[in-house]
Amino acid sequence: TSGAQGTSGAQGTNAELFARAQAAIPGGVNSPVRAFRSVGGTPRFLVSARGPYVTDAEGREYVDLVAGWGPAILGHADPRVVEAVQAAAARGLSFGSSTPAETELAELVEARVAPVEQLRLVSTGTEATMSAIRLARGATGRDVLVKFAGHYHGHSDGLLAEAGSGLATFALPGSAGVPADIAALTLVVPYNDLDALAAVFAEHGERIAAVIVEASAANMGVVPPRPGFNRALVELAHAHGALVISDEVLTGFRVSEAGWWGLEARSADTAYTPDLMTFGKVIGGGMPVAALGGRAELMQQLAPLGPVYQAGTLSGNPVAVAAGIATLRAADAEVYGRLDAAAATISAAVSEALAAEGVAHAVQRAGNLFSFVFGEELASGAHDYATVQRQESWRYAPFFHAMLDAGVSLPPSVFEAWFVTAAHDEAAIGRILDALPAAARAAAS
Ligand code: PLP
């Protein structure tokens, strides 16, 4: 191909590219939600992204509210991050040996998130949660894992039971290929329900190694924890000798300098200290970096110091780590202020447009993450998976397509969070606001 990438027809239309992809790749995609199955239509094949915008193969530009599913807090292709990546790449792509930058990234995380005394880098969020669970099992000598319905922690075997994200989209109970014996080691509890959690501990407490929880749920749409839920959960687990793995792959360094943990640490009524935490997305700045961290005494149970094995050829990859460091260094209070302001403006405008068309809905907010639930029954908000599944989810597809036609790219499922970036300036937000009346009308019909 030539330098004409991004101009009309350079590589074919989106439809042509999708047809070709479907022949070469299962479903035409390398991650299910990208296939537009829940909204219908043709996925856009993107060729470039800058600031708050993405451009497809037909040369069409969209204001982006997916942000790479979270990492791009500074906006796409931020020059500071791109330069750091280019400089690191020029020094070598992968060494399979320790580098000074890995320590720097660990120190940056530890300086912001107090429960993280030590950090181990991996490449994906799935690996981070999988390794954290093995560590919790190794440290406690117990096998059973508790998770919450609608929470997504990646696609490892034990974590797909009643998970959100693509599984919410497809309404699958779990996944084929997961042995029943492995699924039986995961207990699923309704979110925000401390009584149900207490009952599970009362019955199985001595077998439970850990509770894994999204610090704030955002893979069934956004469903924040009730105030004090995380704190009570940690107390309950500890009373039974179980550990808590707080999954901040999505929320970490996005909703505040110290993630969701940092927001709740601001009040004594909500502050909590998980044993282990997992990160991804933002800490890689758009490159494959994720991590698990926690108390040093626990983390030192990992190989080579301890008996819990964990490893990776590409773990701490120098080019990826450079992107993470540049992103975290740039993510200061001003950036979080811009993210919060953009989220407030956009979510209020969507709500206003829907209300103007008489579409019953609620705004679901967790810091600068937000999404919407549709229907009269949910107009006061949703706090668990069963409730979000009862919404009028069919209203989302026409809304989504009206926005896309007007040049705004939303997550292609009602069960995903919307992601703003600090690059969403007045012009980009203005384009979103202009598109809303027609989209709200589409949702109303
Ligand atoms: N945990 C949470 C909370 C996530 O949102 C995700 C991905 O969306 C994961 C884990 C899995 O991360 P990855 O897709 O990098 O494997």
TrEMBL record:
Residues 1-11 have a biased composition (Polar residues). One of its GO terms (molecular function) is transaminase activity. InterPro entries: 4pyrrol_synth_GluAld_NH2Trfase (IPR004639), Aminotrans_3 (IPR005814), PyrdxlP-dep_Trfase (IPR015424), PyrdxlP-dep_Trfase_major (IPR015421), PyrdxlP-dep_Trfase_small (IPR015422). It holds the Pfam family Aminotran_3. It is an enzyme of class 5 (isomerase). Keywords: Cytoplasm, Isomerase, Porphyrin biosynthesis, Pyridoxal phosphate. Belongs to the class-III pyridoxal-phosphate-dependent aminotransferase family. HemL subfamily. This is Glutamate-1-semialdehyde 2,1-aminomutase. The lineage of its organism: Bacteria, Bacillati, Actinomycetota, Actinomycetes, Micrococcales. The gene is hemL.
